Amino acid sequence: MTSTVSIPPFPAAVGVTHLLVYDTLAPDGLVGGSPHVHFLCSEMYMVIGGHGAVQTLSAAGFCETPLEPGQVVWFTPGVIHRLINHGKLEIQIVMQNAELPEAGDFVLTFPESILTDDQAYFDAASLSPRGAVYTSTERAAHHRRDLAVQGFVELRQRYEAEGLAALERFYAQAVRLVQPKLDAWRAVWEHGPLAAAQATGRHLAALAEGDVSFLCQGNVYTLPAPAPPRRLGMCGTLGVYLPEGARRNES
Fold first, then answer.
1. SS (HEC) of 195-241
2. CA nearest 100: which of 24, 14, 159, 23?
3. Which of 15, 25, 65, 79 qualifies as a cystine partner to 95, CB 3.0-4.6 A?
4. Using an 8 Å Cβ cutoff, are 149 and 34 in contact?
5. In whole angstroms, what is the distance from residue 47 CA to residue 153 CA?
6. Using one digit for the tens of pLDDT, what is the confidence trace for 131-173?
């Protein structure tokens, strides 16, 4: 039989999402998602279908990495990234720090005139001040993508002209937008990834004492594929895997 009692988080309290990248044109003639940056979360792409690329901008400069089925690509906080869809690009995403990306750990690369005005930013992003990642309509999703692409193109030009100073100015503007969320993010981290690491410490101590009782609590958990409707995210439509929807297999 199955049960929904005492379901643990994903291993290491990561977040997992299935992504179908947007297939509409942006203002610069490329097809794909919204350029943005994360502050605390590394992100990993496991390409499972289609073809495309990820454009990145960081202190190391601009880079475009091809994406092909079977490929794994990851990047760390501070790397501005934009997915390009060359055809049916489908990705399984693994993200650090549980649900922090869903709790607002991102800022879109809007033009400076929007980034410097809190209300203008939240209005343009079709987001609540809490910073939820999802929007309600395709029109809103494409509008914020187009604005983010416009700002990304401008930021690349400033980086080419000014170097690191252009990125540092963007980071400062972006951090100001998310600072009100830091206490909530800390709570997610403490109850997720930190708690998982502390559990490993307890298990190491138990093993050192020859205590195997925690091994007797092992089990198998399953999650079905994300059910429709899919959510409109920054880079495409999202199927979100939520650990609380998992089932524990019991004999």
1. HHHHHHHHHHHHHHCCCCHHHHHCCCEECCCCCCCCEECCCEEEEEE
2. 14
3. 15
4. yes
5. 25
6. 556 677 888 889 999 999 999 999 999 999 999 999 999 999 9
Residue 237 structure tokens? 């439509």
Residue 136, SS3 per DSSP:
coil
SS3 content of the chain, % helix, strand, coil (to 5): 40, 30, 35
- To which H or E segment does residue 177 belong? helix 164-178
43: CB partners within 8 A, 6+ apart? 74, 75, 81, 93, 94, 95, 96, 101
